[in-house]
Design goal:
Blueprint: H1 7-26, E1 30-37, E2 40-52, E3 61-67
Antiparallel strand pairs: 1-2, 2-3
């Protein structure tokens, strides 16, 4: 999927993801979900919640994005 992907790239992405989840889960800006069949995790996803800058269309712009 990624061209010229190295172990160092993978290690950096893992580090960045851990930092992201630690911050976002503590501040309720990401909701992680898991799909289970019996006791086995068979899928996962998440809901990213964020706020955009106010604009002429609205002063409070909260959004979310579903990730699979």
């Amino acid at each position: 999927m990624f061209v010229d992907w190295t172990q160092e790239d993978s290690d950096e992405i893992l580090k960045e993801n851990l930092e992201y989840y630690q911050e976002m889960l503590e501040t309720n800006k990401h909701i992680a979900v898991f799909a289970k069949v019996e006791d086995k995790i068979v899928g996962c996803g998440g809901l990213c919640i964020y706020r955009e800058m106010p604009s002429p269309d609205g002063t409070v712009n909260s959004f979310s994005q579903i990730l699979f």
